[in-house]
Amino acid sequence: MTSRVALVTGGTGGIGTAICRRLALSGHRVATNYRNEEKARAWQAQLKAEGIDVAIAPGDVSTAEDAESMVRAVEALVGPVDILVNNAGITRDTTFHKMTSQQWNEVICTNLNSCFNVTRPVIEGMRARKWGRIIQISSINGQKGQYGQANYAAAKAGMHGFTISLAQENAKFGITVNTVSPGYIGTDMVMAVPEDVRNKIVAQIPTGRLGDPDEIAYAVSFFIPDEAGWITGANLSANGGQYMGW
Ligand code: CAA
Fold it and tell me: What is its EC number (predicted)?
């Protein structure tokens, strides 16, 4: 397998950590961004103790200026980005009639604008080198909607619109663009949902359990090898059977 350079945004989070780990164990050079240096350095040291190297660069992906300087720092540390996983995301859950413009904007900027902000500085290099993999980490709730998540569902559905347009524009350049839509995974983000609400959600999952972050990392890794070059514009659901729309 060819060793590539991978940038995973939000790599220090639950799903992000599993993606960084799996890509590094597959032989790729991996980097992520951070906003909190102390937390990121501790995370990096923990992976290092497992024998996994992940480069880290400062930058808030919700702003174009930060994202661009973060990408340039990553290039200086590990080389030009071949694989981009747009994974960074937050929730600000509340019913829409109570939602503030701040709760709306924070989610749209971090989850959706980040795709523009980070992909824009890497796409020209991928096109020039005639190879690339761009993977959006969306959500089951972008596919089916969710009570209390008008902001999040709008951003996550928007991510797949981004995927299918970029897929068309970049297919001739050896670049595939795909979406992975996780269901409810046992991360801090999902564990922050009130327990009674969460138990009702788990009861709707045919597998009867939350997903494991590595089950999402596996779905991401599926899109990366050269033999996945014909697969572009896809939206891969990984949700334990909770939503089977097609
Ligand atoms: N369908 C219908 N009614 C619902 C409902 C649902 N799914 N969920 C809540 N309700 C009802 C309640 O029964 C209650 O009704 P009554 O007032 O008649 O008793 C009412 O809505 C409560 O409404 P409020 O506006 O008072 O809501 P709240 O302030 O109590 O909290 C909430 C609402 C924030 C949305 C809370 O229910 C919640 O956290 N829900 C979970 C949202 C969720 O799934 N988030 C996912 C986070 S993880 C993630 O995002 C990762 C991923 O990609 C999957």
Answer: 1.1.1.36
